[in-house]
């Protein structure tokens, strides 16, 4: 099993396209919090990827905003904001992670492994943000930009979407126009630590398949779910 993971980590590093000077950074980025539960904090802080995830989220936001501004000079602020939120959310990060093969390279506790941690979108998405932070810390912003441009290329295949400043209101209006009851939202899952939780919310509208999305708060997850449903149904 250890050899299989080592091979997966080596393959992942090749896909990342960055030769780490500090290999420990990549290992930390791939280490889920479940591994260190109950263990003492190391000399340099927690040994899992939560702090790297925090940094990576900010680096990702900067790089997405930079690329959107450069690639779509005629898009307005609303269009850019809508696209930014779609490109940095957990769903997008999970897709990137699946393409990179992050799941097989993760370091998980036996319990998390048994519950399918390598396939959990939230776990993969968090690791992707942590990897971006690791590249940034190891090689600087330019190295992070090179990795980002390659890893998020498919996510940028569609231009900025039509602006929806309040997706929950837009979904409500769409449902009412169809003569259906108001959309309902429920928390399907909550993972992560208290200071960095991930909420999975399911949105339901009568007559269409329910849809789930993730966010760092319940409100963010509800907005992401509403936006995703509107896109799926061709409203935006």
UniProtKB/TrEMBL annotation:
Domain RNase III: 9-140
CC annotations in GO: cytoplasm
Keyword tags: Cytoplasm, Endonuclease, Hydrolase, Magnesium, Metal-binding, mRNA processing, Nuclease, RNA-binding, rRNA processing, rRNA-binding, tRNA processing
Principal location class: cytoplasm
Gene Ontology MF term list: double-stranded RNA binding; identical protein binding; metal ion binding; ribonuclease III activity; rRNA binding
Any one of the GO BP annotations: mRNA processing
The enzyme's E.C. designation: 3.1.26.3
Pfam short name (any one): dsrm
Active site, UniProt feature: 57, 129
Localization, UniProt: Cytoplasm
Domain DRBM: 166-235
Leader peptide range in chain numbering: none
SUPFAM superfamilies: dsRNA-binding domain-like, RNase III domain-like
Quaternary structure and partners: Homodimer.
PANTHER family, alphabetized: RIBONUCLEASE 3, RIBONUCLEASE III
The protein's role, per its UniProt record: Digests double-stranded RNA. Involved in the processing of primary rRNA transcript to yield the immediate precursors to the large and small rRNAs (23S and 16S). Processes some mRNAs, and tRNAs when they are encoded in the rRNA operon. Processes pre-crRNA and tracrRNA of type II CRISPR loci if present in the organism.
Name this protein carries in UniProt: Ribonuclease 3
Organism name: Brevundimonas mediterranea
């Amino acid at each position: 099993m250890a050899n299989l993971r080592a091979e997966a980590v080596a393959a992942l590093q090749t896909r990342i396209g960055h030769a780490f000077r500090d290999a420990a950074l990549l290992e930390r980025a791939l280490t889920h919090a479940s591994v260190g539960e109950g263990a003492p904090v190391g000399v340099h802080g927690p040994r899992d990827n939560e702090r790297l995830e925090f940094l990576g989220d900010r680096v990702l936001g900067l790089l997405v905003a930079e690329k959107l501004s450069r690639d779509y000079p005629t898009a307005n602020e609303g269009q850019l904001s809508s696209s930014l939120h779609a490109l940095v959310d957990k769903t997008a990060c999970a897709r990137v992670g699946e393409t990179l093969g992050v799941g097989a390279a993760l370091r998980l506790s036996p319990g998390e492994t048994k519950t399918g941690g390598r396939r959990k979108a939230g776990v993969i998405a968090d690791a992707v943000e942590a990897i971006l932070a690791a590249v940034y810390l190891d090689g600087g912003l330019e190295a992070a930009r090179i990795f980002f441009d390659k890893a998020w290329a498919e996510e940028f295949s569609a231009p900025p979407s039509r602006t929806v400043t309040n997706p929950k209101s837009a979904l409500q209006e769409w449902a009412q126009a169809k003569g259906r009851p108001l959309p309902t939202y429920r928390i399907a899952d909550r993972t992560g630590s208290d200071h960095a939780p991930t909420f999975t919310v399911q949105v339901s509208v009568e007559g269409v398949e329910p849809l789930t999305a993730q966010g760092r708060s319940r409100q963010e997850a509800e907005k992401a779910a509403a936006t995703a449903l509107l896109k799926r149904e061709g409203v935006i």
